[in-house]
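Reading a protein record of the kind used here takes only a little practice. The record below shows the convention in full.

——
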Amino acid sequence: MVVGEVAVETDVVIMGGGPGGYAAAIRLGQLGKSVVLVEKDKLGGVCLNRGCIPSKALIHAADRYHGLNDLGKMGIRLPQEGTTMDLGVWQDWKAGIISQLGQGIAHLCKENGVTVVKGQATFLSDDRIGVETDGDFETYKFEQAIIATGSRPFIPSFIKVDGEYILDSTSSLQLKEVPASLSIIGGGYIGIELGMAFAKLGTKVTIIEMDNRILPHVAENLVKEVTRNAKKLGINIKTSSRVEKASVVDGQVHLLVSSEEQRTEAVVSEKTLVTIGRVPNTEEIGLNRAGVTVGEKGHIAVDMECRTNVPHIFAIGDTTPGPALAHRASKQGIVAAEVIAGLPSAVDSPYVPYVIFSEPQIAGVGLSREEAEQQGYSVKVGKFPFSANGRALATNETEGFAEVIVDANSHILLGMHMVGADASNLIGEGVLALELAARVEDIALSMHPHPTLTEGWLEAAEAVLGHAIHIVNK
């Protein structure tokens, strides 16, 4: 590796081409800045290539496959034998989706004047980075930099991911055959999403969670429907349990699991998936040479403008404290770009929506009832079950409910949460309502189309006010 003597000068360098990095690059290009975007793998990052998009493609396919079981009640008759799921064909379909989206990102970068460099970037100083590409080494001098290097799965030291028997989320989405059995270490959203998907495809799934319930960071009342459905799918859920050892014996994964009662047992499966959490990719990018401070867990503290302790160096996405969500990274990337261009911009909203593609889906924004009460609010809650919604009944998707959390004194909305079909697409109304500091009357007085699931928000809001039409008001 030879360090070149001449540095290429640019206004901004961005380290990482994931959802935050490429959004920042495109916005900077729109604002007239010269931009070098460095990505060591493929544009779109983990989200597009190995995470969000591939996993949702699997979940959708599994939903369609599993949904065949319910067609009989609608009068649709299918052969009782012969229906199969070919993961090899699915892999080709998934690859096509990723390719199309990746090409779109590359085109947008090109059209906005962004220079994309494939390689591993590291800081050489607080105004230079070096990029290693195919044995060459190039130096770039910058005025500002954005760190968007993302995160990776956390794997305990006693577990070795081999990609064949012991999997991380990436290798689990590369399987070409549906495993007969799968144990999942971690009952968070990734474990639940993938576990339920594979269970729908016929895999015998066991989920092992350290906490006393799955999805421990989500309000308990929202998780009950998912827990019930997981058991209906035949998923064996072991809570308050910890994996002490993992080994591969004769083509099977053996896990030694200890429970809260100090009992130990062996869980044996064809594959094991590790979904404990994620860690930021901040160790090997030379942050010390740039003077950027890193916290104990590897995160980079930033202000509302996404500035680090070095004012002309910004950090976004999974490298910063907070939920590791692609939409949060994109928002931060756009804010950082606008601040660099001299515009007044900031990440000044607490309303970061979350979505879990479980069965049924969970989505929400703002405070839960428990959180609102802990913060001292006097709370009123409106709740409307989908079992009373015409659209839900017509599509055989009656599980779940819409819930609004309201300040009893001002009637300002504090939180909106939903469990049910298409909750991921319906939460947008909640995000906008909270951003606009709407009152519950604003939802209740807005005409919602019929028959749709959006009427769940309308009826939940009306329930707070005591005049919901399709349920008995308490």
The chain has 14 helices and 22 strands. The longest strand covers residues 136-147. The radius of gyration is 24 Å. Residues 360-465 form a domain with the Enolase-like; domain 1 fold (CATH 3.30.390.30).
